[in-house]
Amino acid sequence: MLDLARPQVMGVLNVTPDSFSDGGCYFTGQKPDIGKALTRAQIMIDEGADIIDIGGESTRPGAAPLTVQQELDRVIPVLEAISKNLSVVISIDTSSPEVMLESARAGAGMINDVRALRRPGALQAMAQLDLPICLMHIQGEPETMQNKPEYLNVVEEVQHFLRKRVRACEEAGIKRSRLLIDPGFGFGKSLEHNLQLLNQLGQFQSLELPVLVGLSRKSMIGQALGRAVEDRLYGSLALAVLAVDRGARIIRCHDVRATVDAVQMAAAVLKQEAN
């Protein structure tokens, strides 16, 4: 069960050959390396991760889509191994209704959809389940999302999109209490758009839903600081603390131990302020 009384840390586990940061680390040949993935999940749990987010389809800019069967073949064996051997909430990063349903049967505790249940059948699939679902904003599709994204007002437009998706979920029979939202940093946004979204992240509290953010190692850090992916830890931690300060309840990250320390320290200060 998700406990959002305090900010949670979600560790990333991509079983893909091409994800921007850890692609290929837990994938050998044409299939996931279950042993390596299980070891990595245990390490992240030991470092303080509350949630493990498993992804089988890369959503980096320019990424090509998978077939449903390819995604199932990557995700389900790793999910089953973690569910059987470790005690942790498991999130599945997917937009495919078939993967959502099969993941729920295999022990998933949450679905994380970068397309906010817009694929055909996704709303209906989630209506059958009793799992939390995170709805993320994206402009376009991963293949094209960074081709000159444009907004008149990025904060207002992202909020409008998420409100519409929340309404669609409720109309499909998905309880509001199961919903989380994600502004989608880096998904169809320029550096300026990302900075505006984080600066005004507190405005998303008006939707009265928990906010999840994924900022770890993102290109916005590289653009702002001129750092390569492997040198973006400190920038990632700064963004995580700012997100917590602005109300984020789940921080999705690659560097779990450092992020847990940063998030817990920020939460301790905010708790003192509230008292």
Considering the chains and any ligands shown, give keywords for the structure:
275 residues; alpha/beta; TIM Barrel; eight-stranded parallel β-sheet; two-stranded antiparallel sheet; 9 helices; 10 strands; 41% helix; 15% strand; globular
What this model shows, in words?
- The structure is a single chain.
- The chain has 275 residues and is α/β, with parallel strands linked by helices.
- It has a single domain (8-274), classed as Dihydropteroate synthase-like (TIM Barrel), CATH 3.20.20.20.
- It has helices at 34-46, 68-85, 97-106, 122-128, 154-171, 191-199, 219-225, 233-245, 256-274; strands at 8-14, 27-28, 31-32, 51-55, 89-93, 110-113, 133-136, 179-182, 212-214, 250-253.
- It has an eight-stranded parallel β-sheet.
- The longest helix is centred in the last third of the chain and has 19 residues, at 256-274.
- It is globular, with a radius of gyration of 17 Å.
- The two termini are 27 Å apart.
- The mean pLDDT is 92.
Q: What is the structure about, briefly put?
A:
With 275 residues, the chain is of the alpha/beta class. 41% of the residues lie in helices and 15% in strands.
Radius of gyration: 17 Å
* Amino-to-carboxy terminus distance: 27 Å
* Number of separate domains: 1
The major pleated sheet works out as: 8 strands, parallel
CATH topology: TIM Barrel
Helix content: 40-55%
Strand content: 5-15%
CATH class value: Alpha Beta
Helix/strand layout:
Elements: E1 8-14, E2 27-28, E3 31-32, H1 34-46, E4 51-55, H2 68-85, E5 89-93, H3 97-106, E6 110-113, H4 122-128, E7 133-136, H5 154-171, E8 179-182, H6 191-199, E9 212-214, H7 219-225, H8 233-245, E10 250-253, H9 256-274
Parallel strand pairs: 1-4, 1-10, 4-5, 5-6, 6-7, 7-8, 9-10
Antiparallel strand pairs: 2-3
Helix pairs in contact: 1-2, 2-3, 3-4, 8-9
